[in-house]
Amino acid sequence: MVTRLSHFFLRTLREDPADAEVTSHRLLVRAGYIRRAAPGIFTWLPLGLRVKAKIEGIIRDEMTNAGAYEVHFPALLPREPYEQSGRWTSYGDGIFRLHDRKGADYLLAPTHEEMFTLLVKDLYSSYKDLPLSIYQIQDKYRDEARPRAGLLRGREFTMKDAYSFDYTDEGQDASYQAQRDAYERIFQRLGLEYVIVAADNGLMGGARSEEFLHPIAVGEDTFVRSEGGYAANVEAYTTTAPGAIPFDGIGAPVIFDSPDTPTIQTLVDHANTHLAAPASGIAGPATDGATEWTAAHTLKNVVLALTHLDGTRELVIVGLPGDRDVDDKRAEVAFAPAAVEAATEQDFENHPLLVKGYIGPWSESGPVLGEESATGIRYLLDPRVVDGTAWITGANIDEKHVHTLVAGRDFTGDGFVEVANVRAGDPAPDGSGPVELARGMEIGHVFQLGRFFAETLGLKVLDENGKLVTVTMGSYGIGVTRILAILAELNNDERGLVWPASVAPFDVHVVATGKDAVAFELAERVSAELEASGLDVLYDDRPKVSPGVKFGDAELVGVPRIVIVGRGAADGQVELWDRRSGEREVVSVEDAVARLRG
Amino acid sequence: MVTRLSHFFLRTLREDPADAEVTSHRLLVRAGYIRRAAPGIFTWLPLGLRVKAKIEGIIRDEMTNAGAYEVHFPALLPREPYEQSGRWTSYGDGIFRLHDRKGADYLLAPTHEEMFTLLVKDLYSSYKDLPLSIYQIQDKYRDEARPRAGLLRGREFTMKDAYSFDYTDEGQDASYQAQRDAYERIFQRLGLEYVIVAADNGLMGGARSEEFLHPIAVGEDTFVRSEGGYAANVEAYTTTAPGAIPFDGIGAPVIFDSPDTPTIQTLVDHANTHLAAPASGIAGPATDGATEWTAAHTLKNVVLALTHLDGTRELVIVGLPGDRDVDDKRAEVAFAPAAVEAATEQDFENHPLLVKGYIGPWSESGPVLGEESATGIRYLLDPRVVDGTAWITGANIDEKHVHTLVAGRDFTGDGFVEVANVRAGDPAPDGSGPVELARGMEIGHVFQLGRFFAETLGLKVLDENGKLVTVTMGSYGIGVTRILAILAELNNDERGLVWPASVAPFDVHVVATGKDAVAFELAERVSAELEASGLDVLYDDRPKVSPGVKFGDAELVGVPRIVIVGRGAADGQVELWDRRSGEREVVSVEDAVARLRG
């Protein structure tokens, strides 16, 4: 049935909403697609719902092609399964919790791993039942601290989440690949550029984890990529450690006075004034050829405080080249599930052996940092701090540093840690060249969960030999409402939205202009013919609205193909208007219909 | 794409679920349509989701035909709008409430009147924008005290709720009629018998309110209907008051001793032993021709306690013929929004003038019941207690009653009230004959809300004269998941479900039997051909499953048309099996495909 604007529930707005920070939010509200109901919670108006349904349709199609079956879990779930997995607690403030009238605990599910696992456990018991892939398209909830950017980070949002179940690792690889391929087809059909980046595989113990990122400036994720094809988000980037350097013949460590040098920069300035020029490469390849002291010659020791799941607080010191900083996201992943923060004044007071601004691993009387040292504080090194590299670092005495302090000879760490920031030009770990940094927005995630949930919740099946084996799972998510917002973010101009045909709320927007009944009759006929041939038609039949307003609305709403029926109607002429290119062309009505159908 | 049982996510169960009270629940779980997640909260498995989608498709179709546009509100909503309408409080324990991380109050919406009203207020402002009908299909939440009967009374359930917006009463009538017509078409397409009954129009002040009830023994609603076409739920039934009776010449009231007669039955026995036989019709038409005293000659005075919204408690006494009882549901509606219960011992202690078992409106020293009486307690009469009717009732003295107490002469009420139970044989109020009582299940409700929400939330538009007028609204609900359950309740036999074609999860179920590759090849071809012609095919391609198990599953799952490909496959013969009639017919494969397509 042709949708008539004279009756359709649509009101376009002239003003940008006051709370819109990003283009997609601004345009989706102005063009009548969504409306705010509460912070991070939106009402879907007819136009928005139509686009959402188109995106969901494409996803369903490709899930079916990938052999996945649709199910639907409740949004309101009891505490027990999440208690069993430990996530009732570990979600912290991030979820909505509630009681029912009997006082039983419930949550609004942010994801459904537990429920999928238990459902399959409930119904399946044999290797013959596997492989299985099931998915749902569902409204999910997260109690975001700062809901923002419209649909890009909401508190109620729609996701497609799929899970695969296999009893062998080879099976899981195949299931993973099938979903990964489906994701590529989905994003291709949506016309949405994507980069598949290696992602951290978290605590679940699975092997592969990849994110589909859409490269976009407003993206919250930073990722790195090389020309040779490497791509990873910064959390998953791994540092290529240089080879060890022989330290035969390097002189002994020398303590020197360094008044007023609590920062790396003041220390470097001091060294260049008071020390002899450095030899090349003494702090590894990064200082090759340096004729002056640089931050890269110094070893920075950053004191971090971890809070473990059981609530205990532990100090950890990270030693990294002075030209690097601790990257918060990489630290978060490196130390998960513990929470990380900078050490506080109180922490320093509790450890008087740490001389703030002059901390180092070594002293003349023995090691200062490390589990076996005077402080007993765990000391982790950046992978670049290989044996034989020589550093300027704190001497653990106020206003004194030490130089020619050689790793592996004068100090050792308790292990290595990947927390240093990644920079453009850093080498891709696969040898495919230097990386560049880019911003992206996560639009999908394929993830081998492995056996974590199956083990925790007891999902086992009998294998060919009648032996109980734990099932291995994959998790595959796509943010439906986020994708809609990104498509709006990408497809617009100063006059409004310009939808790709695959997700446009209507296929054709027919605009009748003028006061001539002939135009309205012809527009009516064109609309009916297009609709009859299977196209969705929005017909602007409003009788007393000026062409300017109608064209403005058409541009704002963003249906890609517009037919204007006006002045030439009596001669059977209409105008075809391509919303994206702006081109208009006068053609016969028969031609117009044929081309739109084609 | 043909759905293959060898991969499909389905596990039929041999045992009935322990908690299933009704057939639909039992079969939907056993046949793999739904699975319990929590009390009154279900997971939808692929088969169930397909049936649900078919029902939703029919509803969407007819909403579109009725000119309604689809929107979608959040399930998680802030308190404010519900505070404004007063429902945050009046919902009591019936809804799920929660806080977000900032402590703001939210609810899981049980209905969305407030949000629809505010959305239209937000976007529309002129009579030119109206009429408007918008709807959503949405998961709703009610914290039922006793979730039961599977999907029939759940805590999470899917509804279609539509609202119409008009600025004139005539407009509202047209919008109402359009939805009412759509409902008739929906239920016809679903093959679901319905009775449209007059319903109570509640507190909102609207004019029309009708329920679509499906007549079914497990139904929770009692309704009445006459052969002449009257139908109403018991809450909406109105008593036809007889005409007043002249009371000239009737003797004065006579107090008489009636020891040990605190109940109507003991009183009637006493009267028949000690009083002269009654004259005909003295207590109205109900006692015409009676030669003995009956309960219908007595006036029963029932003490009720109302709790008003502001928490105050008020006693009310209802005078009704002794052969009637107070119907709880009718009392609930009659006194809404106050809550009603029987008076407690404490209430009687607080009113020593009420002599329990011997309460009546009259005493020699003056009125005892009524706002102007000695007790000051409001006294409401059943409509049958018209002026001139003469009663035996309590004399307000222990073990004494009074007879020949004439309404309108010796006592009056503060008004009339419709709380007496309705009985088979009572007259339909429209004169269409005696009513019978039946049980039904509400499957839809069309309801003129009138201006309650628009007034409360400030939804006004400018009319043709530039005057602000309050919008009038209609509310139209259909329970999607409840309809699915009722269809399952109706369409089954001892072997399983038997879906109507309009909502069956698949159009055809193809079963390959035997070990002969020819059968599987032919079944494969038949499935592909049927699917290619637009039918949804479930193909049982399981290689090592016996025909018995396959047929049992087919019967349990309930796809109405089954094709068996087995023994005759080599000769191009298949069997067409009609699930409902049980008839099987051997036909050529070409014939089978042609007939299934037809």
TrEMBL record, chains A, B:
Catalytic activity line of the entry: tRNA(Pro) + L-proline + ATP = L-prolyl-tRNA(Pro) + AMP + diphosphate
Q: Which family does it belong to?
A: Belongs to the class-II aminoacyl-tRNA synthetase family. ProS type 1 subfamily.
Q: What class of enzyme is it?
A: ligase
MF terms per GO, please? proline-tRNA ligase activity
Stored Gene3D superfamilies: Anticodon-binding domain, Bira Bifunctional Protein, Domain 2, YbaK/aminoacyl-tRNA synthetase-associated domain
Organism, as annotated: Microbacterium insulae
Which Enzyme Commission number(s) are listed?
6.1.1.15
**Name assigned to this protein:** Proline--tRNA ligase
Q: What does this protein do?
A: Catalyzes the attachment of proline to tRNA(Pro) in a two-step reaction: proline is first activated by ATP to form Pro-AMP and then transferred to the acceptor end of tRNA(Pro). As ProRS can inadvertently accommodate and process non-cognate amino acids such as alanine and cysteine, to avoid such errors it has two additional distinct editing activities against alanine. One activity is designated as 'pretransfer' editing and involves the tRNA(Pro)-independent hydrolysis of activated Ala-AMP.
- Location(s), subcellular: Cytoplasm
Q: Which Pfam families match?
A: HGTP_anticodon, tRNA-synt_2b, tRNA_edit
Please give the record's comment on domains: Consists of three domains: the N-terminal catalytic domain, the editing domain and the C-terminal anticodon-binding domain.
For this UniProt record, give its keywords in alphabetical order, as a comma-separated list: Aminoacyl-tRNA synthetase, ATP-binding, Cytoplasm, Ligase, Nucleotide-binding, Protein biosynthesis
Q: Which gene encodes it?
A: proS
Give residue ranges for domain Aminoacyl-transfer RNA synthetases class-II family profile.
35-500
Provide the assembly information: Homodimer.
What is the first-listed, main subcellular location in coarse terms? cytoplasm
